[in-house]
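User: what does the whole thing look like in 3D?
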Amino acid sequence: MIRFIALRIAAAFVVLFVVASATFFVLNLTGDPVTAVLQGTGASQEEIAALKVELGYDRPIIVRYGEFIWSVAHGDFGVSIRYGQPSIDMVMERLPYTLILGGTAIAIVVVLGLPIGILAALFRGGWFDRVFSAATGLAQSVPHFVVGPLLILFFAVLLGWLPVSGGASSSSIILPALTLALYPLALVSRVLRASMLETIEQDYVLTAESKGLSKPVIVLRHMARNALLPVLTVIALQIIAMIGGTIVVESIFSWPGLGSFARDTLLASDFPLAQTIIIFVAAAVVTINLVVDIVYALVDPRIRLK
Amino acid sequence: MISVSDPRAEAPATEQSARLRRALAKSPPSVRAAFAAVALVVLVAALGPLLTRDPTAQDLLAVLRPPFATGSAGTYLLGTDQLGRDLLARLVSGMRTSFVITFSAVLVGGLVGTAIGLASGYLGGRVDNLLMRIVDIQLAVPGVLLVLTLAAVLRPGVGTTICVLSLIVWVIYARVARAQVLSLRETDLVMAARATGCSNARILLYHVLPNIAGSIWVITTLEFAHVMIAEAALGYLGLGVPPPAPTLGAMISEGQRYLQLGKWWLVVMPGVIVSLTIISINAIGNWLRDIHDPRSRGRPG
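Assistant: Here's the predicted 3D structure for the full assembly of 607 residues, as structure tokens:
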């Protein structure tokens, strides 16, 4: 088991190393970022050249690559061209907003998705199930950039209940979190419904019924508990999908997290900063995958023998 | 080596199309409605320039007019935007761009991904290891971020958008094709073909490919919806096909700025059309998956 975990961690570092290298070359091969950022800002050729020398962009790319890998390995992610601050500090400033948004969305998924999925399974074929099927189908097809503006139109513009955008007040988080939660909410409740329906046919449910246990006890303790494993897998995978989703959702609502920051940074060609964000995001994805793999291996010994 | 035509090679394909026709005949009304909706949208997008006004022509005396408003150029069925441009014309033109980009990206990504998946699964060993590691590495960066990064570095345009989007497509095809080949490789079908002296290329093209065609069609449909959303998202984030060419995503993000003034149609019209198209494509995709693999019926995607 220790060998398995050690191999997985090593593989994760290899993936991150390749991602960091690929990002560096993609962002640097097509031209130098200093010119890209300062173009059209009124900076003179001399000023651009001076900044290039100051930030080291006048040296050959292979030297810069070596230095980049060396400093990243030592926790130094370089300086943002646009803001002139260490990019790691700027990422850390934005990261809490994304974590709060993601956490709220996951909470919505769990709190609403589990009861809805259980109810849809219990009332299979009834009106609730039919509404459920149509609603989840809809929720899984309508893209973020349609849901978000429509929520703004209803709850912010027409009803005036919630702020249009930004992160200033505590109610600002409601609309972006709902937008981000919609797809995983539909998926999780659908998976739970299907998984519940499979447990209904199991012998242990029949046994529980014949013992005369009450319906809530059977449903919650005997069915839902056994139906939950596939749901946990889906939630883990959906967290990875949500990391990508935050870029669009945060941009829709001008939520000051890492997602909207990534977009602004790429639009402004501030590549040292973009590089840092991409490495961070990749590290998050790789870590989640690693944890899922290890948990699986702990639960199912067959996996680690492969 | 063997010059006689191989009857087994054609059997699966004709059988599949017959099965598809039978399934279509007894498909539920919702699936038929989805087919009709997609056909209608594609038709309107294809005939676009013949039916509508110039999508970039401005009518500055009729800016931000609601649907059915009249201006100097007649009635604007879906209203006008902040520059007095006909929303219907822009929507149709944006749809057209979206279809061209989506179709090309799925085609390129699908061909490359299927070829890589076939080779990876069939050859196995080191090739397989290397190719699947590349897939893992790419999947460490979320698709939107990958697409956004490349779009920011490259010169924006239709060609760039197609290339960038095909990158998120190929991994899906490669994984599905590889998984299918792995299970087919050990079957009598492939053994027999190998025993009769078929080359690897012939086995893959005539014996393996027809047998995985069903799954390929299913993911093609679902990926079409996926890429369409990604294209619009790219436009929404400001890194798609550059203006003044209308794109669905850019229309929604521009329209969002006028929401607080109550100009709802700028967001609602493109949003509803995009959503209906995606819903229809997904409905077709899920239906195809159900008839292809009855065990998956009723299961979520």
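In plain terms: Chain A has two domains: 2-87, 93-267. The domain at 93-267 of chain A is CATH 1.10.3720.10 (MetI-like fold).
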